[in-house]
Design goal:
The structure is a single chain. Strand 9, helix 9 and strand 10 form a beta-alpha-beta unit. The protein has one domain: TIM Barrel. Helix 8 crosses helix 12. The protein has twelve helices and twelve strands. The chain has 321 residues and is an alpha/beta fold. Strands 3-4-5-6-7-8-9-10 form an eight-stranded parallel β-barrel. Strands 1-2 form a two-stranded antiparallel sheet. A two-stranded antiparallel sheet has the order 11-12.
């Protein structure tokens, strides 16, 4: 299906959700206070953090008209890290279960532009059949009234039978608006991720009568975004923009930022995260606008190198998977 004018609410695809988390960022309330107002269009924060840091998070209310993705809390309460993490952060220790997830979601001041991610903090989440994950998510969504889009986060791996997955999704069509996957589970390499998403999009198009956006959790590296958008992923989020320095669609350690700063200012660089964050937001917004324009115009000339790489991967996919 052609997606050249596809939107989430009124935002053209792709959608970039700038993520925040207490996992690995113990100063989350201060971070939100200093950075959240700079974030355009969309952001992601977990229900776990909203519940246990509510008194300290003052900047999220129903007057905020950006698209807000309310994550499940599974990342904050598990020992798993995303691909961009450069150290293993300690997970949260507060109680988190289906009931606390539902209770917290019911307190959200919905703004009519919200996306709620399904609960996934199960100990056996990676071994649960897709059909059971879909059933559990739909059951919990029914307990949460409100005007929001439903984003089902499915835990699968690179060997998952996508034809069977698409048939399971068809059975539950109508109880969700977005299908989510973690980059770590389906795209340990660009090669595997490109093939997985391309095949998934084909299977979904064959089973469903409507276009369902694909959300890649923990994917916020510029090159990965481009590759995966070109084959059918639509929504991207992650913490890379708070961990690294982004320049010209490439990601670097933050120390690389010093190379772009005049030597006369180096004595002032004891703390330059605010400058890097502002730079990263600008870089990612430029990338989003370029991708949106390319999709609308069907002109991908500014991504020719990435297109060539994707086409090469897909042509080799059957032999190398």
């Amino acid at each position: 299906m052609d997606r050249n004018a596809m939107t989430i609410y009124d935002e053209l695809l792709p959608l970039f959700a700038f993520s925040f988390s207490s996992k690995g960022f113990l100063d989350l309330p201060d971070l939100l206070a200093s950075v959240l107002s700079r974030v355009p269009d969309s952001f992601l924060v977990s229900l776990y953090d909203y519940r246990y840091l509510l008194d300290e998070i003052q900047d999220i209310d129903n007057g905020d008209t950006r698209i807000r993705i309310w994550d499940s809390g599974g990342y904050e309460t598990s020992a798993d890290d995303d691909l961009s993490a450069h150290f293993s952060a300690i997970p949260g220790i507060e109680l988190w279960c289906e009931d606390t997830y539902v209770e917290t979601a019911r307190t959200i001041p919905w703004n009519s532009r919200d996306i709620l991610v399904s609960y996934d903090a199960y100990k056996n989440r990676t071994s649960k059949p897709v059909a059971v994950q879909l059933e559990d998510a739909c059951r919990l969504f029914e307990r949460i009234p409100g005007n929001y889009m439903r984003d089902i986060l499915l835990h699968v791996d690179e060997s998952t039978d996508l034809k069977s997955l698409a048939k399971d999704v068809k059975r539950f069509e109508g109880c969700f608006d977005v299908l989510g996957f973690t980059e770590k589970e389906i795209a340990s390499t660009w090669f595997k991720g490109i093939n997985f998403i391309d095949n998934l999009r084909k299977e979904l198009s064959g089973e469903l009568g409507v276009y369902v956006p694909i959300h890649l959790f923990g994917c916020f590296d510029p090159k990965s975004i481009v590759y995966f958008f070109l084959v059918g992923a639509d929504i991207f989020d992650g913490l890379s923009w708070l961990r690294y320095f982004i320049n010209n669609r490439s990601t670097f350690y933050t120390r690389e930022y010093e190379a772009l700063v005049p030597l006369s200012r180096h004595s002032q660089l004891s703390f330059y995260l605010p400058e890097i964050v502002a730079n990263n937001i600008e870089e990612l917004q430029r990338l989003r606008y370029d991708l949106s324009y390319s999709a609308i115009s069907s002109d991908y000339s500014r991504f020719q190198d990435e297109m060539n790489f994707v086409q090469q991967v897909l042509s080799d996919g059957g032999d190398r998977l």
